Amino acid sequence: MNRSTLPSRSVYGLFNDSFPPVLDGVTLTVENYVKWLAAAGRRVCVVTPWCPVSPPHEGFDMYRYLSLPIYNRHPYRYGYPRLDPFIWRSIRRTPFRIVHAHCPFSSGRLAAYAARTHGIPMVTTFHSKYRTDLDRSLPQVMVRYQMRRLLEFYNSAAEVWIPQAAVEETIREYGFRGAVRVVENGNDFGEGIADPAAYRRESRRMLGRRPDEMALLFVGQHILEKGVEIILRALPLIDSDVPYRMDFIGTGYAQERMKHLAVELGVGDRVTFHGVISDREALRRHYAAADLFLFPSFYDNAPLVVREAAAMLTPSVLLEGSTAAELVSDGDNGFLTARTAADYARVISRLAHDRSLIVDAGIRARQTLCRPWRDVLDEVMGLYDNIIERYGHKG
User: Fold this and answer.
1) Read out DSSP for 333-376?
2) 270 near 245, Cβ under 8 Å?
3) Among 70, 177, 79, which residue's Cα sits nearest to residue 134?
4) Beta-bridge mates of residue 77
5) 73: closest CA among 225, 218, 219, 223?
6) DSSP secondary structure, 29-59, as one string
7) If we measure between CA atoms, which residue out of 131, 141, 149 comes closest to residue 225?
8) Rounded-to-integer distance, Cα 250 and Cα 246, Å
C-alpha cells in the first residue's frame, strides 16, 4: 500500500480471507461493501492474504499479508499473519473506526486484534458452513480445536450478522448462543438493464442457444459439496426428446473428476466447462441465456449465484430443505426437488415440456430475490453508525 493514501480520518476495515483475483460469493460481497462505502465517502481498507496476482485497485487502501496456497483448494490461500510482522504494525498505525470480519480465520483474527488495539467494535458476518470445510481438510482433533476458536471469535464480536434467517440454525449448531442480525446480500446484475427480456433474447443469440434448446447453468466452486455430481448424473436421465446444453462456470478440486464423469455418462458432448469467468458482463450474459440455474447444494448458506440468476429472469432448481432454498417457494420463484439425480432430472424434464412455468418463475424470482447492493449498503452504513455510537467512537 502507498502510505501517502493512508486516510487521516477514521477507516472502515473489511477483513476477508479472499479477494480478487480469487472469486466467490463472499469476495463479491466484500467488493460491493468496498464500492458502496467508498461511493458514500467512507474511507475503506481491505485486509486480506497476499496473492501472486493482485489486480490494481483505486478508491480504497489494501493490506495483504503472508500466505501460502491451500492444498486441494486452488486458488485459495491461507494467511499466516503471525509470520508477517508488517501486517501487525500496519493495523496498529491505521485509525480504524470499525472493523468488519467476513471470515473467522486468519483475517478474522487480525480484525479482532484491530478491535482490541483501537478499542473499537468488530462486526462479523457468518457466511459459510466452515465445519464442512474443516472436516474435509483436517483430522478431527484439529477440527474440534478450530471450532472452539471459531466460537470464541464469534463471541468476541459486537454484532454477528447472517445473510438470511435460515443460517441461524447452522451457527447455533456450532454452539453460538448470542444474538444474530439478518443483513441480506445484494445483487448488481439487475442494474442498467431497461428490458431484461430483450437482454435475455440477445444473450441467447450471442451465445448460440437455439430456441428449442434447454440451456442449463451452474456457477460456483467445482466441489462435491455443492452437488455437482447430482447435476451430472441427472443429465442422462432427462427425457430423450429434450435437447439441452449444460454449462459449468468456475473451478475447484473436483473439476477433473467432473469432466471424466461427463464422458463416462455419455453426456460429454452436451457439457461445457468454461473455467472461471471474471468478466462480470460476460458472466451476466451466461445467466441471461440460461433457462434454469442448477444448484443442488446443502453446503451453501445464502448463495449469491441464485440471486444473480434471478436478476436475469433465470429461476433456480434447488434442494428441498437446503438453506439455499429458504427464500424459494416451489413453482413460484423457483423449483425444489429431492436430493437424487432421478428427481432432479424429472423436474428439468417437466419444465422443458412447459416453458411457461420457467418464464413465470423467472419473473417472480427477479421480483423477490433481487435487492440492489446500494440499498443493502445504505442499511449497513446505518447499522455501522449505530454500533459506533453505542461504543462511543464517533468520527
Assistant:
1) TBEEE-SSHHHHHHHHHHHHT-HHHHHHHHHHHHHHH--BHHHH
2) yes
3) 70
4) 69
5) 223
6) HHHHHHHHHHHTT-EEEEEEE--SS-----S
7) 131
8) 13
User: What's the confidence (pLDDT) of residue 3?
Assistant: 37
Which is it for strands 271-273 and 292-294: parallel, antiparallel or unpaired?
A: unpaired
Q: Do residues 81 and 27 make contact, with C-beta atoms less than 8 angstroms apart?
A: no
Give me 142's grid cell: 484439529
- Which of 99, 112, 100, 96 is closest to 161 using CA atoms? 100
Kind and range of the H or E run holding 308: helix 304-311
Q: What is the dihedral of CA 15, 131, 327, 101, to 10 degrees?
A: -10
Q: Please state, as a whole number, how many other Cβ atoms lie within 10 Å of the Cβ of residue 352.
A: 22
**What phi-psi label fits residue 392: left (phi over 0), alpha (psi between -120 and 50 degrees) or beta?**
left
Please give the pLDDT value at position 190.
78
Angle at 197 between CA 301 and CA 26, to 5 degrees: 20
Give per-10-residue mean pLDDT for the chain (395 aa).
48 95 89 96 96 86 93 81 95 96 96 96 92 80 89 96 92 94 90 88 94 95 93 97 96 93 96 93 96 94 91 96 91 95 97 96 94 94 95 59
Closest C-alpha to 163, from 185, 178, 180: 185
Q: Please report where in the chains the cell 464423469 appears, as a residue.
A: 261
Output DSSP code: residue 188: S
For 372, list phi and psi in degrees, rounded to 5: -60, 145
